């Protein structure tokens, strides 16, 4: 008789009140009751008849409904030889110390962006976010991109955030996206309206216009819109911190940090190299801090597809506190506006978020 087997890429995750199945191949998330999670984990590789007997045939109808749902969504299959289908290995491996970086720049910045990019290239960093808080010229962006091409940089993708300017028309930005494959996206802030421009290069590059003001305090927002459901992000989140692992940053003053919004600096790029900063005490302090270590998050069914934030936390006296800008409650399964939660008032005041 055929036994039920989850597809290897479909991973159940249990939360306080409900669970999810993360389909890491199709990038889909399915919410399921904790009872079904129990069946899938504790009674895997059994037939449906065997599972029903384990519950004394009291819940046959419910169990049938569960498996109709699982089969319809192609989350399970039937086989006489489940041992021939091993589970997916969920280890995390990355060949280099640094995988991503944020470089902040404004009108008062004194450090050289080119130098920062060159040092990231030496560290084999693949992904860079450039955040310009003041008006930047088209030629400045062009020169940076041409420099990377000339250096044959290992940097594969760049996200560029900048304030709205007539110099950066949709047409000009589209040309840059077409001519420079390294650019993943443009986020244009202080715009008249929110707008998403049709992706370019086969859905790989895009332009987003936002009415919001661009500020270092914009980061750390937790939302289902930002869930990342794939093998790479899931396994990294399972084993490492989903925001800070492999990250290095330079704030507008040239200070080297884990994240520009964090207070602790590991030196200034004017006199300390990025490589030297990596070996300073506590630089990697948060890299292995997973959601399983963070209060409230450890009980959340979304913890391995969600990001994290250690720059802004709900309880400023507890490094294991949940992210300040998360409005989800895994004990009620409800989302709320995090800014209106009175529990967060002290932290909002401490971080001076009311002015945003």
Automatic annotation (TrEMBL):
Sections of the chain in a coiled coil: none
NCBIfam families per record: rSAM_more_4Fe4S (TIGR04085), SPASM_w_grasp (TIGR04193)
The name this protein goes by in its record: Grasp-with-spasm system SPASM domain peptide maturase
Pfam families: SPASM
Gene: gwsS
Ranges for domain 4Fe4S-binding SPASM: 240-301
């Amino acid at each position: 008789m055929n036994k039920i087997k989850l597809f290897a890429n479909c991973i159940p995750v249990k939360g306080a009140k409900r669970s999810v199945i993360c389909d890491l191949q199709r990038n889909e998330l399915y919410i399921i009751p904790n009872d079904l999670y129990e069946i899938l984990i504790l009674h895997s590789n059994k037939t449906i008849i065997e599972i029903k007997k384990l519950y004394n045939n009291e819940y046959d109808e419910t169990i049938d409904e569960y498996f109709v749902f699982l089969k319809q969504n192609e989350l399970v299959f039937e086989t006489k030889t489940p041992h021939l289908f091993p589970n997916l290995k969920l280890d995390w491996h990355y060949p280099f110390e640094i995988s991503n970086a944020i470089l902040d720049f404004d009108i008062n910045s004194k450090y050289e962006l080119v130098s920062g990019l060159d040092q990231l290239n030496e560290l084999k960093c693949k992904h860079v976010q450039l955040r310009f808080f003041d008006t930047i010229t088209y030629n400045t962006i062009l020169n940076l991109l041409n420099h990377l091409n000339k250096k044959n940089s290992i940097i594969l993708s760049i996200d560029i955030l900048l304030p709205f300017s007539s110099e950066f028309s949709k047409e000009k930005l589209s040309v840059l996206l077409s001519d420079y494959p390294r650019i993943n996206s443009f986020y244009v802030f202080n715009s008249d309206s929110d707008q998403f421009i049709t992706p370019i290069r086969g859905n790989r590059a895009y332009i987003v216009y936002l009415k919001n003001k661009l500020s270092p305090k914009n980061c750390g927002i937790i939302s289902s819109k930002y869930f990342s459901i794939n093998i790479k992000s899931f396994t990294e989140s399972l084993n490492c911190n989903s925001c800070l692992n492999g990250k290095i940053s330079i704030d507008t003053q040239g200070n080297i940090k884990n994240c520009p919004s964090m207070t602790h600096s590991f030196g200034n790029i004017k006199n300390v190299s990025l490589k030297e900063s990596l070996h300073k005490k506590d630089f990697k302090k948060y890299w292995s801090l997973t959601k399983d270590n963070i209060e409230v998050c450890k009980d959340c069914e979304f913890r391995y597809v969600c990001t994290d934030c250690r720059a802004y936390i709900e309880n400023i006296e507890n490094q294991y506190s949940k992210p300040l800008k998360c409005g989800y409650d895994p004990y009620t399964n409800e989302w709320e506006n995090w800014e209106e939660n009175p529990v967060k008032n002290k932290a909002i005041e401490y971080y001076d978020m009311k002015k945003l």
